[in-house]
Specification:
The chain is of the alpha/beta class. It has 3 domains: 4-156, Rossmann fold (3-Layer(aba) Sandwich); 176-228; 232-377, Nucleoside Triphosphate Pyrophosphohydrolase (Alpha-Beta Complex). Helices cover 30% and strands 29% of the residues. It contains 11 helices and 18 strands. It has helices at residues 38-48, 70-83, 101-110, 128-136, 145-156, 171-174, 177-188, 278-290, 325-332, 353-358, 364-377; strands spanning 4-9, 17-18, 20-25, 54-59, 86-90, 116-119, 141-142, 162-163, 192-202, 205-214, 219-228, 232-239, 248-255, 265-268, 271-273, 300-306, 315-322, 346-352. The strands form 4 sheets. Strands 12, 13, 14, 15, 16, 17 and 18 form a 7-stranded mixed beta sheet that branches. Helix 1 packs across helix 5. The longest helix has 14 residues, at 70-83.
């Protein structure tokens, strides 16, 4: 396809596919005698774009300078802002000719989205507050138009081809392993994405409202959220007993804000999320949360599954290890564990499988993981 830049002006329909999309947010001239900054931005984008295919640029100015539909303009901008991979804010504010009041509101909506860049000439007034939040949230900034364009394109890179409903998934979500695995599963079932809207993002966690065409039912399901986080590694440490219900199981107790237990703590298997190989992560989490340092060879893999398939796309990689009486004694004497820098504090608990079931110590997902391992070990 080569390097291609397509301009979509206000009220115009976006194309059906692209590799990247940028929205040019900032003050718009209200009279013909005031020069817009956007033509210069388009020249910079054409000069700097080195992606593999089509870059779409949303320009919230009418191609012929006509503004006659305020509500339609607002709705077009909202739609295209959500379609953009990067919202390029450039604010050459002039209090007399381009006061940028609407830009202030748009910045308030998008500055924490993870897909905004901010530029402004040093002499432009009343930008200190906007710059403060750009710096606070790590938004890339620049003092001229070429630098602002470069900041946006650097994060885009070469882009990624998306078609139809896929266009509504911005690159910062599209490129995550969790999204790609979820979408590969949907496509493998013959389904396709008809629409999407990012509702929130927190680090590597995200929530996406999706519209999915369900091929086997020939319908579009549009009332669900896909929530994703990095995969977790979970480890069952246990000491077998003649009776299954007397098997000792190692749990960790930790305060977790979503808990609805009487003490506000969750009781779960040692484990956690991170970018490491699942087995490496399992070894690390056991050490951090229990103090027990086990070599990787002692951990048996049991595969991975979703934990809550009606809500979250992430998966749990389950491992287990049979431990000794001496290790049980060490664990009973262990003090608090966890990673203080990550506000994590864990306490080792040891209970029999029977106690876990009778006292409802763990959630249903954890019951299933324990049963999966102990059924094979019994």
């Amino acid at each position: 396809m080569g390097h291609e830049v397509i301009v979509v002006n206000a009220h115009e329909e976006p194309p059906g596919s692209w590799h990247a999309a940028v929205f040019l947010a900032g003050p718009t001239p209200r009279t013909p005698d005031v020069e817009s900054w956007r033509p210069a931005a388009l020249r910079e984008l054409r000069e700097q774009w080195r992606g593999d295919g089509r870059l779409v640029v949303f320009v919230p100015e009418h191609r012929h300078g006509v503004y006659d539909d305020y509500v339609g303009q607002v709705e077009w901008e909202e739609r295209c802002l959500h379609l953009a991979d990067e919202v390029l804010f450039y604010v050459p504010r002039d209090l007399a000719t381009m006061p940028a009041f609407t830009t202030n509101v748009e910045w308030g909506v998008w500055h924490g989205s993870g897909r905004a860049v901010f530029g402004a000439p040093p002499e432009a007034p009343k930008n200190d507050y906007l710059l403060h939040y750009a710096r606070k949230l790590g938004v890339p900034t620049a003092t001229d138009l070429p630098g602002t364009v470069a900041a946006a394109l650097e994060r885009i890179g070469h882009g990624d081809l998306r078609v139809d409903g896929e266009r509504e998934v911005p690159l910062l979500i599209w490129r995550t392993e969790t999204f790609q695995r979820w979408y590969a599963a949907q496509r493998g079932a013959g389904n396709s994405l008809r629409g999407a809207r990012v509702h929130w993002r927190f680090g590597l966690h995200w929530g996406l409202h999706v519209q999915v065409y369900v091929a086997s039912e020939d319908r579009v399901k549009s009332n669900e959220m896909v929530i994703a986080r990095p995969d977790i590694s979970t480890v069952l440490l246990y000491r077998p007993a003649p009776a299954l219900e007397d098997t000792l199981v190692v749990l960790v107790r930790e305060f977790r804000s979503p808990a609805t237990t009487s003490d506000g703590f969750v009781h779960e298997l040692p484990g956690g999320a991170g970018p490491a190989d699942p087995l490496e992560r399992a070894v690390q989490e056991v050490a951090e949360e229990t103090g027990l340092r086990l070599p990787a060879e002692r951990l048996r893999p049991h595969g991975d599954r979703q934990v809550n398939a009606t809500l979250s796309a992430h998966r749990a990689h389950l491992f287990s290890a049979e431990i000794t009486e001496g290790e049980i004694a060490l664990l009973r004497a262990a003090g608090p564990g966890g990673v203080a820098a990550e506000s994590e504090r864990t306490y080792v608990e040891i209970a029999t499988f029977g106690e876990i079931l009778r006292e409802r110590l763990v959630d249903w997902g954890t019951v299933g993981m324990i049963a999966q391992v102990l059924r094979g070990a019994s």
